[in-house]
From TrEMBL:
Binding site for Mg(2+): V540, H542, V545
Top-level taxon: Bacteria
Family of this protein: Belongs to the ATP-dependent AMP-binding enzyme family.
Lineage per the UniProt record: Bacteria, Pseudomonadati, Pseudomonadota, Alphaproteobacteria, Rhodobacterales
Reported modifications of this chain: Acetylated. Deacetylation by the SIR2-homolog deacetylase activates the enzyme.
Protein name per the record: Acetyl-coenzyme A synthetase
Amino acid sequence: MLDNPENIYKPSAEFIQNAHVGPDKYKEMYTVSVEDPETFWGEHGKRLDWIEPYTKVKNTCFDFGKVSIKWFEDGVLNVAANCVDRHLATRGDQTAIIFEPDDPNAEAQHITYKELHEKVCRMANVLLSQGVMRGDRVVIYLPMIPEAAYAMLACARIGAVHSIVFAGFSPDALANRINDCGAKLVITADTAPRGGRVTALKSNTDAALLHCSDKVRCLVVKHTGDQTTWIDGRDVDVKALMETAAPDCPPRPMGAEDPLFILYTSGSTGKPKGVVHTSGGYLVYAAMTQEYTFDYHDGDVFWCSADVGWVTGHSYIVYGPLANGATTLMFEGVPTYPDAGRFWAVCEKHKVNQFYTAPTAIRALMGQGPEWVEKYDLSSLKLLGTVGEPINPEAWNWYNELVGKGKLPIVDTWWQTETGGHMITPIPGAVPAKPGSATLPFFGVKPVILDAEKGTEIEGNPAEGVLAIADSWPGQMRTVWGDHERFEATYFQQYKGYYFSGDGCRRDEDGYFWITGRVDDVINVSGHRMGTAEVESALVAHADVAEAAVVGFPHDIKGQGIYCYVTLMNGIEPTDELKKDLEKWVRTEIGPIAKPDHIQWAPGLPKTRSGKIMRRILRKIAENDYGALGDTSTLADPSVVDDLIENRMNK
Ligand code: 6R9
């Protein structure tokens, strides 16, 4: 049904004519990229400025026990110089960053490459003056303000490794990340307005730092000017220091494989892991995908509405666009403030050419009615994109018809924190779209469908199984911070010889890939990736909770919601008040994005005789799908299931 020709959307002749890559060129480039990666990437690596050119291109091994990934390994470069300095001669006065504040009446800022250079240098000098050295880690806990980009690039300039913690995370989550990566310093802001509400970032940071070494210093961006506590000797006013810092700071030559950043992401087990990306390969890949996937042309205004706290913001607000000398838009607010027209008002105001957002945002806006889109002149738009989760046909159609007026290519980009950049995505001038499919691989990417049990490749089409990648690409993560064994165990152990994505996937008759969602215990709530284990450990940390099991369930707007089964300690009464208390508890332990949608009291959980919780059953109950519970005979006590169903029905 979904493969019928009427559901295939081809780019317009005009689009194809202006596109970097048309249909024939895609096939040609793709073939070279996978058959001869050395030549292909050797050539495309030259898009960056290298202080010492590389002579080796690819040196990678996917064998379990020996996994090692190196690209351009003997090359020397500086990422910040590539994103800023090298554009000064040709486009110093061009806008690098457009900053659109939360408050629609506040003035937008246009930061030129020259200004960006000065800010980054000043910030880099501030970091140096605080004792930050090459290889030191700096945690960034900032809202979507230009200082976040300055801070990232300032770290890159002096060879420090940044780790951004999303500003929606709690003090506990922040403390865990500061401690895990051993950060010397955290950069935060006083408070952060978002959607008219204010988050107290500095006081969250104060709370986090109570659990960290007292050597960790705190740089504060006075963004709103709101009053905060101040600890002399530990807290530093960044803006004040930037004013007196020197406006120039030489970029430090770095090895291609020196770490650029760590970004924590959720897995199916244990604590979030620090995904490590390095300098050369990551930047080549982020820049290349930004140009080709979005068909970015010089002078275009590019807007990725993600947050810099996620990988999408790293690659497509900051590194990719700036490496290409683009104008990138940074938006502090939310899609629904002051009203549901904000995205489109911003597109009109700044004449945005490519717009990239998440299906969950589209679904939230769909419900508000077409008038919010129709009010605005969207004629500057040339292309639309989505990321973060599979897009459902209704949302795709709405995006296509209302925003794209039926004329714009839509690129549905499948990728992950671990992959650094797009992996499966249409090249818009070459690959027709099918709503809901991420279509075909990006250059250099070899996706395969594996039989989940046997681990063998399923050849031919159609095929269905789990999605793995057969060979390395430059943007691939290199390790888990401080735990290479965990890196291998997570991605290379289950299916030997492949990078395992954790996603299920089918491939249709035309070879198009359709991501079917995670096959592990990771859930995707409004495009935010979360391990059910994290929510469970937050719940069991509460004194009244004996045991908890958390699963995802389908949610109209968020994609997936959080469903918690909670067993209370003996003698504790299950009350509505306690439910609210637990919701609040999880919010405080992890952050607002992890707030449970449903808590169901569970006198017992379905367990195998060996004590394993059978989540498959819990998922079905959460989905209200009791007909398909499957085999329950291995349960230690099958009657638990009946209790759970009965409770669910009585809800
Ligand atoms: C970039 C980003 C990764 C997980 C991934 C998959 C889901 C992302 C998708 C998609 C279907 C798409 N995902 N893009 N599923 N279609 N276009 O989102 O990174 O936060 O690490 O999440 O998101 O399940 O495995 P991250």
